[in-house]
Amino acid sequence: MRYRNVWKSGASTLAKIGQRDVLPGVKHPGFRAQAITQLSGKALLWADSIWSQNHPAIQSYSSFVDHFKEVFGQPSWDSSIAQAQDHGYVYYVPDPVNNWKTCKQTTNPVNNWKTCKKTTPLLLQIGVLHLEKISLLVLEESTADVILGRPWLEQHNPILSWKTGEVLKWGDTCFNDCFSEFPVPRSPSSNHLPVCATSIESPLEKRSVDIPTCYAPFSDVFCPKRASKLPPHRPWDCAIHLLLGESVPRGKIYPLSIPEEKAMEEYIEEALAQGYIHPSTSPAASSFFFVAKKDGGLQPCIDYRALNYITVKFRYPLPLVPVALEYLRGAMVFTKLDLRSVYYLIQLRDGDEWKTAFIMPTGHYEYLIMPYGLVNAPSVFQDFIHEVLREFLHKFVLVYIDNILIYSRSLAEHCHHVAEVLKRLREFQLFLKAEKCSFHQPSVQFLGYNIDSSGIQMDEGKVAAIKDWPTPTTVKELQRFLGFANFHRRFIQNYSSISNLLTSLLRNKPKSLSWTTSAEEAFNTLKEAFTTAPLLVHSDPNKPFIVEVDASTTGVGAVLSQQQGNPSRLHPCAFFSCKLNPAEVNYDIGNLEPLSVKLALEEWRHWLEGVRHPFLVLTDHKNLEYLRATKRLNP
């Protein structure tokens, strides 16, 4: 936000600075700090200097103005609403209330200030996001539309950039109280203006979804009807290349229950109407069946395993999530977007439709769009969405298949970033699920993590799932638990050592699970470690790193930390652990400790190589202190 000097000279100066939020009928007690507008850091110093009513600066009007000019200097330009609009911040204020009495300047301002009228509660918008209900005192003459004093500053606690004139961050209460608290009227009135949100109905949940008004021009991007149309052919159409000499798949028809038959008829009717499928004469025939959803519904599925086995793999990589999250350092505001239909946004390459053919009790059909279940579908879509948003990747956008995260350092900057992404999605005829999008949040859940400006934590739902995980009774159940836990191992110190006993139970592919008391203890210890996992702070390359290593007879571990926060404290950025292989198990402690250093530096090479400050390696093995100073003896 850009703040101008709000005074010129003469009557309006004293009126603007002298008045404060007082109830009608109460005389002004003097020039208080609450009346000072947000000019600069000098404002509070100046206010404190004349706090006393006996200060010479308020004994006369001329001395007051002279003292004011002495502190602030002569302004080079004045505030204006047009200039404020140029920076995207507009104060909406209705006409003054009737019966306004002019404030007059006298040599005795304490006793002769006239009280002024107070408005009814108004909706005050600052920028495109911040909206609150507030009552204002009315001044007859003012070059500024609204003067916000110290009580308002204390309540909302904005962090400002005085160089760029932007609000970098609002107070914590603003995200809950000022961004979506008040409903937007259907039509403007003298006391209300439609400045908060655009209402879009979600066809899935039958509720209204609030989209910030600044994105109203992009309402078509959230339209479910537009998303149901057949997408155009693009250079990124899905091609299905088959291995030479392989026969096409031929599945079987599965019998369906009465509810499944009804769901099948609805699915086929809708897909035919949208143009997603059409009747087929293909020699290929994959099986069609249903699986149950968590909410009790039925999800149609096609068994493309045989087709995938003979398909040439497309190796476009999916992003490494931990590496991608490193770009979020310094971000203060987040918006999460979720694409509608995902794979259905891409057509199959002309001539490859017959390969996706499937059979069911009522017919033989093939897809025109990329269906779920194809082995190359994730890579094809990732390649496509990367091309769509390539200009923004790792600058203010992360994208993992259909999940798009936009991050920025300030609210004003964030609005521009989100608008750029929505504009690009519209150009490529991509659409969003409004009910799954969240805008302008101080924290966000993304790919199983809770992310905010401080760092990254495990999703509370994932932690609860691990905490309530029942004791495994079969090999498959143990594999499922370890697979789930392994995804979040970077949050757990010495994860490999804790889970070593559990992983040893799966050695040599046993047919049954030999669960022991020791295994139960290791299982409970691992669950407890997840429930107490710390926050991992965003690494800062401008600060020195500390690598702390340790080794045991079963594995090695390390912690990467930095001094952050106020007061500065050591916080973990990541944990690393590794199980020893059969050869390394025979190492003595003198070799295990250097091994832990080597593995840790390899794991975090991309963080530690080329940093501004030397990093420190901490170990409890005294002999490593002389590792670099050791001289080789001649035989």
TrEMBL record:
Coiled-coil residues: none
Keyword Translocase: no
One Gene Ontology MF term: RNA-DNA hybrid ribonuclease activity
Pfam families (UniProt xref): RT_RNaseH_2 (PF17919), RVT_1 (PF00078)
Protein's UniProt keywords contain Nuclease: yes
Domain Reverse transcriptase stretches: 272-451
Entry keyword set: Endonuclease, Hydrolase, Multifunctional enzyme, Nuclease, Nucleotidyltransferase, Transferase
Enzyme category, top tier: hydrolase
InterPro entries (alphabetical): DNA/RNA_pol_sf, Peptidase_aspartic_dom_sf, Retrovirus_Pol_polyprotein, Rev_trsase/Diguanyl_cyclase, RT_dom, RT_RNaseH_2
Entry EC number(s): 3.1.26.4
Highest taxon listed in the record's lineage: Eukaryota
Gene3D superfamilies linked: 3.10.20.370, 3.30.70.270, Acid Proteases, HIV Type 1 Reverse Transcriptase, subunit A, domain 1
Family, similarity comment: Belongs to the beta type-B retroviral polymerase family. HERV class-II K(HML-2) pol subfamily.
Protein name per its UniProtKB record: ribonuclease H
